[in-house]
Design brief:
With 123 residues, the protein is mainly alpha-helical. The chain contains five helices and no strands. The N and C termini lie far apart (46 Å).
């Protein structure tokens, strides 16, 4: 396998390793790093070691935004989907942060209610 990287000879085995498996492995590593970073960020923002981006509705909000972008604005490119998803995921994350940072007032209890309601809805 190392020979495909250091001494490429054009054989089928070297082609498979260098041109097919290596890019897929690199993409998988980058995707895993991005998912890990998103989890760490949402845990740091909410100060909750069990939080994940799907818990407060970030994923659902991003999907809704993409659906609205397609239905209302006629977005048809992957780049358009990404921008709509990113914008709404950011908005949902900021909303969770603002609710969570409300302190011991009504915001903290509301965040707990939102999380419980979201978990019940998923069942």
């Amino acid at each position: 396998m190392a020979g495909a990287l250091t001494d490429y000879d054009g054989s089928d085995e070297h082609h498979i390793v260098r041109d097919l498996r290596l890019p897929h492995t690199a993409a998988g590593l980058l995707a895993g790093a991005a998912l890990g970073a998103s989890g760490a960020l949402i845990q740091a923002l909410t100060r909750n070691p069990l939080a994940d981006p799907g818990l407060p509705g970030v994923n659902a909000g991003a999907a809704l935004s993409v659906a609205i972008g397609i239905a209302v604005f006629g977005v048809g490119s992957v780049g358009g989907y990404l921008w709509f998803a990113f914008a709404d995921a950011l908005a949902a994350t900021l909303g969770v942060y603002l609710i969570g940072s409300a302190g011991k007032g009504a915001g903290g209890g509301y965040l707990v209610w939102l999380l419980i309601h979201e978990q019940r809805r998923r069942r």
